[in-house]
Amino acid sequence: MRRLIIGILLIAVLVAGVAAWLLQDWQQFRQRPLTQDGPVNLWLDSGTSFRGMVRQLELLGVSRFDWRWRLLGRVESPVLKAGEYRIDPGMSVSQLLERIVTGQVRKHRFTIVEGWTVSELRSELTADSRLRKVAADLTEAELMQHLDCGGCEAEGRFLPETYFFVRGSSDLQLLERAYADMSRALEAAWSKRDDDLPLDDPYELLVLASLIERETGRPDERSRIAGVFVRRLRKGMRLQTDPTVVYGLGEDFAGRLRRVHLTTDHPWNTYTRHGLPPTPIALPGRASLEAAARPAEGTALYFVARGDGSHHFSNTLAEHNAAVDRYIRGR
Q1: Structure confidence at residue 4 as a pLDDT band (50, 70, 90)
Q2: pLDDT tens, position by position, 213-233
Q3: CA-CA distance, 99 to 300, in Å (whole number)?
Q4: Distance from C-alpha of 266 to C-alpha of 53, rounded to nearest angstrom
Q5: Which of 7, 19, 68, 214 could form a disulfide with 243 if both were Cys (CB 3.0 to 4.6 A apart)?
Q6: How buried is residue 11: exposed, middle or buried, by Cβ count under 10 Å (0-12/13-18/19+)?
Q7: Rounded distance, CA 119 to CA 134, Å?
Q8: In angstroms, rounded to a whole number, what is the distance separating the alpha carbons of residues 199 and 254?
């Protein structure tokens, strides 16, 4: 009897030791890094099971299914949320599960660059493999109809910003956000405009902002250039801004603006026509919208590029011609 009791005790101790070791191993497994190398992306479709998730990890080479995964699934019974998840170096099993259960999906970014045309924007969206293609097959007219702006021109209507999205989002969803943001930004700029601004409506402000956007990328010059344009509009002078000519030429522009381009009439040629062009010529950012709404005071009516990104401003045509000789013709 005594031997039996000792045998039972020894077995109990052995079982307890094995259980303690297994428990410790399981706890260490939950805290063990899945990868120490670069980040790995895990994609879970809707309805993916726990075993299916581990199978994905196996395919990625970061783990393999064994009794510890099986126990973890039974003990925690996690509810997995579909999406793309980033497994960072040093991330543990528990941290990954927490990320998946709480739906902390990976967010990508897409930046709409100030000064892009809407054609350039759509081309970049089409080339981005992270986005589902929905808007790519729409004409500009169909796109604007979808945005409840039927009959509107698409140019200038999307706000340059950095937009975050999750995998599976569509190009159309991003455009919807950019359109809504531009509408709000334009409304805000219009509400703060100078009282004597020679513009009839927010759309004309959008057009003017696009000219400013294409003329300069310097924050300190936007309002000064806006002031030149506004003073010329008040005096009935042609705006004579090169970017409008380039925009009107479209694919016919070969990279160098010539005198014949300035004298060939088309709706966007501000050398041959008075007033603003009929549409924006680019996507203006917030700063250009604000500059158009509140241009700097002054007397300058002309400006010319210095060649270093900045401009020389002149009050008279004689001063301007001298600046052109200096900075453009090198005389």
Answers
A1: low
A2: 999 999 999 999 999 999 999
A3: 58
A4: 60
A5: 214
A6: exposed
A7: 16
A8: 33
